Sequence to fold (155 residues):
Amino acid sequence: MGWLSRLGFLAVVAMTVLIVVGADSQLGAHDGATGIVKERQQGMVAFKKAMKTWKLALDEPQGPTPETIGEISTQLSSHAGARLLGLYPENGPTKHTDASPRIWTEWAEFERLANALEARALALATVDIDKSVLRSEFKAIGGLCKACHESFRER
Ligand code: HEC
Fold:
């Protein structure tokens, strides 16, 4: 390989790395977040994806299938409740996070919202597969996301 084609090869490698790393940060994970902070942000990204799938299905003429609603229920409930709460230890990491310190001074409220999300997500698996019911559930769950972010997320 001549030096020119070697340079070309290196440029391709560098671009590939850029694309891969770029794609990752588009998901919303904070650069440099590791361990428990990364884990809780990934859980949140899973919430976001589930809500997007739900919204898109609601926009379809036939609405969401029971399978889609079942998957959304699982995705939301499996990252909520105790699972979510366990990722916010007191005196935990403070870097690369948007978590507000109010989480630990108003823990009861944070806990209530995390548990309400789990309960509502589990109940979703049992509701009628009816567009208007699913739309109002979407709003109720979206309201829990919003309520928690307003009080406990800083950005
Ligand atoms: C109990 C509180 C709580 C609930 C409920 C909650 N969030 Fe969050 N969310 C947070 C906190 C705190 C952060 C900041 C986490 C961090 O940076 O360490 C966050 C961050 C996020 C992020 C950014 C993740 C990243 O990559 O930095 C997204 C996206 C998100 N939440 C979506 C959702 C959606 C969608 C829902 C509802 C299905 C939801 N959240 C419910 C507390 C909550």
Notes: The chain has a mean pLDDT of 88. The pocket of heme C is lined by residues 28-30, 37, 40-41, 44-45, 47-48, 51, 76, 97-99, 110, 113-114, 117, 141, 144-145, 148-149, 152-153 (CB under 6 Å). The helical segments are 3-26, 35-59, 66-78, 81-85, 102-105, 107-124, 131-152. Residues 35-59 form the longest helix (25 residues).
